[in-house]
Amino acid sequence: MSTQTIEKDLLRGGQFLVKETKCEDVFTLEDLSEEQKMMRDSTKEFVDRELWSHWERFESKDYAYTEETMRHAGELGLLGIAVPEAYGGLGMGFVSTMLVCDYISGATGSFSTAFGAHTGIGTMPIILYGNEEQKKKYVPKLATGEWFGAYCLTEPGAGSDANSGKTKAVLSEDGKFYAITGQKMWISNAGFCNMFIVFARIEDDKNITGFIVENDPENGITMGDEEKKLGIHSSSTRQVFFNETKVPVENMLSERGNGFKIAMNALNVGRIKLAAACLEAQRRVITEAVKYANERLQFKTPIINFGAIKSKVATMATNAYAGESACYRAAKNIEDRITLRVAQGNPHQEAELKGVEEYAIECSILKVAVSEDCQSTTDEGIQIFGGMGFSADTPMESAWRDSRIARIYEGTNEINRMLAVGMLVKKAMKGHVDLLGPATQVGEELMGIPSFDVPDFSELFSEEKDLLARLKKVFLMVAGSAVQKFGPELEKHQQLLMAASDILIEVYMAESTLLRTEKNAKRFGEEAQEAQIAMSKLYLYNAVDIIIQKGKEAIVSFAEGDEQRMMLMGLKRFTKYTNQPNVVALRTLIADKVAADQGYTFD
Ligand SMILES: Cc1cc2nc3c(=O)[nH]c(=O)nc-3n(C[C@H](O)[C@H](O)[C@H](O)COP(=O)(O)OP(=O)(O)OC[C@H]3O[C@@H](n4cnc5c(N)ncnc54)[C@H](O)[C@@H]3O)c2cc1C
């Protein structure tokens, strides 16, 4: 197949909203190759052996153990999965790197943060933006765990507003080095890293610049104490102070003033990987919770028999399944985009950069959705354990605390919500995604007389797919009118953006779930996918409720009179379920399956 044909078939980032995706075109966890399955299984073995069985050590702030296990992960090749072979890594595809990140992260947030900070933001900026000398010098050491990396962007006064940092880089008179001075905070891996990616401003530049800085206490680098944190107790987090730290000019990453771009692009990869990192945590919590519920007797019956508990288990499993479906769908899109760019002659470095950037909208969506599902799952995990869930002797308590950070780092969920919609609108303006045409059509549809025909919904998911297509219209209606009304001022209407973003998120997650199950039902049979079909329907049912609420909130915030009435009628029409599913029956079916399997077995 020619590269043009592949390109035509490949959905661009954000296009899921306006183009139909066939189930055959999505990648699912059931499509893993034998090699990928082996990778997953060896990662799981490592986690069970070295992390899960030692979770108390992670809770007791045993930073040395985090470092030791990171080193073992390096010896096993797990730190070099995403690193090209030329620099000592395994050079595996994006899906494989997601798999490792997913399955390595379930036992403790301490390790997964150390792993993510090292392999992601600590290493990727060099792989993506470093020159040949820099890559040869640093990447092989980082790929094997001989060296560990950290990433210094945040400062006391520069958090979400990352480009506002005050750290300075001053060129020496002989032009041979920069002297970096400034204070960085919340730096993961600071306590044991050998190297930092540091962002600093040269003179009064508009944008910051990235540097590779070796960790040498003799070179003006000092650290604060370990931060006392709510969770991820054994992840090293410290302030780092640079005082006239000399950095050779050849250690500048990319070009002067390119640091903000580097920081943001490193975060795109970080966001989708963070979403993956929240999946195995959910699976393990579900499995532990259901094992407990199967055994815990109250009123002379295992508590799993209570509808109240079944409802929780079903929702937890459904969210994890949706997260998996969407993460791996997007991961394969990214991998295909990278492959395509390489085939078109782009150097691998550029192909990877552009491949991920293309799906920055999906990366933000996933970061928000999966981190919030992870938190609600750990919360319900505690509830299922009752008083024991509140005890630090069970893994529920630490899982709940550890999950909390995922909503804050790699860009807070508020920032990512606004980014998702903002980037989509920008793509539409640039003509990369045609939102205007479909939004105009939706406007015309609103003026027209609705059809009263009841379509034939007998085929699996035919009604759900029809509904999903209409849910996309809700987003187009709301966002299209809002853009028309506010133009560039839209970014000031944050509550509206948040509501629009929630609609976008629900559409992507619900569609990914449905497509995965449809694909699997076609090849494995509907009977074999009974629980997955139920989860897909339950997810969509919940998504519709959220979309109704958020759609209404958005519409009444900016439309009045006839326009408001017309849009609210449109909302009702676009969210109409002809045959409402019996969600109690769906939840019961799902929970019974998870209980019978003694855990989450859909991956
Ligand atoms: C455990 C931990 C590890 C970390 N690791 C690293 C690391 O390795 N390297 C690194 O550089 N940083 C790291 N961080 C920093 C992290 O990325 C920041 O905490 C995060 O980006 C938020 O910045 P902030 O804490 O300054 O919050 P703020 O930016 O002050 O935000 C506070 C609140 O205001 C909201 N807000 C801010 N701006 C806006 C806006 N424009 N519109 C609407 N709402 C807004 C935020 O969403 C948030 O709810 C880490 C943080 C923690 C806690």
Detailed description of the structure:
The chain is of the alpha+beta class. The protein has helices at 3-9, 34-51, 55-59, 63-75, 94-103, 109-121, 124-129, 132-144, 259-277, 279-295, 307-343, 348-358, 360-385, 395-403, 413-430, 436-447, 462-486, 494-524, 530-558, 561-574, 583-596, and strands at 149-152, 168-171, 177-188, 195-202, 209-214, 221-223, 237-248, 252-253, 297-298, 301-302. Strands 1, 2, 3, 4, 5, 6, 7 and 8 form an eight-stranded mixed sheet that branches. The longest helix has 37 residues, at 307-343. Flavin-adenine dinucleotide binds next to strand 1, strand 3 and helix 15. The site of flavin-adenine dinucleotide has 19 residues, from strand 1, strand 3 and helix 15.
SSE layout:
Layout: H1 3-9, H2 34-51, H3 55-59, H4 63-75, H5 94-103, H6 109-121, H7 124-129, H8 132-144, E1 149-152, E2 168-171, E3 177-188, E4 195-202, E5 209-214, E6 221-223, E7 237-248, E8 252-253, H9 259-277, H10 279-295, E9 297-298, E10 301-302, H11 307-343, H12 348-358, H13 360-385, H14 395-403, H15 413-430, H16 436-447, H17 462-486, H18 494-524, H19 530-558, H20 561-574, H21 583-596
Parallel strand pairs: 1-4, 2-4
Antiparallel strand pairs: 2-3, 3-7, 4-5, 5-8, 6-7, 9-10
The structure holds flavin-adenine dinucleotide.
Residues 117, 151-154, 159-160, 186-188, 229, 237, 405, 408-409, 412, 414-415, 494 line the site of flavin-adenine dinucleotide.
